[in-house]
Amino acid sequence: MPSINVDRLRPGVFISLSAYGWMQHPFLLSQFCLSSDKQIQALREMGIKEVEWDPARSTAQPLPEPGAGTAPPPEPDFGHAALDAMQAEKRQRVDQARHQRENLARRERKFEQEAVAAGDIFRSLLARPQEAHNQARALVGRLVTSLVEADSMVIHLVNQKSREGGLAFHALNVMGLALMLGKALRLSYEEMSHLGLGALLHDIGKQEIPPRVLRSTQRTGPEEEFYRAHVGYGIKALSGLRELPVPVRNVVACHHECYDGSGFPNRLAGEKIPRLARIAALANRYDNLCNPFDLREAKTPAEALRQLFRSESARYDAQMLQLFIKALGVYPPGTFVALSNGDVGMVVETNPSDLLHPLVMLYDRDIPRSEALLINLSDTDLTVETALSPAKLPVETVEYLAPRGRLDYFVEGSSG
Q1: 134: part of which helix (H) or strand (E)?
Q2: Is the preceding omega at residue 66 within 30 degrees of 0, hence cis?
Q3: 25-42: buried (b, 16+ CB within 10 Å) or exposed (e) per residue?
Q4: Residue 68 — φ and ψ, nearest 5°?
Q5: What tens digit of pLDDT does each residue of 231-249 get?
Q6: For residue 334, is it left (φ>0), alpha (ψ between -120 and 50) or beta?
Q7: What is the pLDDT of residues 260-290, one digit of tens each?
Q8: N or C: which end of the chain has fewer CB within 10 A?
Q9: pLDDT tens, 292-332?
Q10: Cβ-based neighbours of 12, under 8 Å, separated by 6 or more
């Protein structure tokens, strides 16, 4: 970027302070469009003589050079007022970001706790089926109550420590995503409870399948038959739960059936597939696209939704697919984005009242990741210019924003 004398600045000029380091100036962002004379006064008070500016992003031209037909602006006498105001505003925004990080950490701890609970359920299902059933209903009930009683919902990206998600994390993802869609479909409390329990238990039969078969991306015919048998093993594992409602069993039995009849094990089609199973099938496929066993094959959220819509839409209920995409938002959590000021970030949370302006974690090499800046775009004049592929970003940027490579979701109710 070219440099410009501070005396030529005016509101509307886009400047960059990246050369000074984020901690060395009072502004929240290092690249931004000047919006007030107070900001220019703060720059002068800092002793800055020149800054870089971007003509393409500016909405106003700089003031003319002194002597080019206009008198130089009089030197303002403002003391430290402008700088103090900017520093106070920055401290307030930093405190707000810290509070947001604490909220995200709380949700992540809760997700980890639920994953431990889910693992205990899966391990005890055969030996203590009734106890496992009670624990599963309690786990599902917490999330269903949160969603049913709320006006809307928040979908948050979980930064859990393990790169290996395992059955419990996949089950929680599918349960949360399925209930997200269930809320969008306005299911009753009972239907949500059945959907959540079925989604939680949908892959319980995979405990009988060797990891080598589960992880294989190119199964032989016999291996594929063995893999598909996890549906039958799942129903067998639930046989000790005599009080388990039929809709729950049907989610487990039919979560691989496809709307066009191409699924398994019974090649059901259309409305013959139970409604709750159709919901779980969609959530299951999305999570499998984002979190395959080989993370090198993982799709970004946008890529996964695009594949579902463009290449696989015949496999799913059209209304459900449209609502699923809408509920996840224009920029689903986990999406890398370029912002209008040139910064790069990753969406960590949807804004249920404004899907175009999510909560974004910004990459800034001057700020430790543990203190990464979180920006709610609805509180700024920033916008998302485009979604980015992590494969095209520097490695340090991707590792800063998404160190695990997995996408796990925590869904909870919101007051709107």
Answers
A1: helix 129-148
A2: no
A3: bbbbbbbbbbeeebbbbb
A4: -100, 40
A5: 999 999 999 888 899 999 9
A6: left
A7: 999 999 999 999 999 999 999 999 999 999 9
A8: C
A9: 988 788 899 999 999 999 999 999 999 999 999 999 988 99
A10: 33, 34, 58, 59, 60
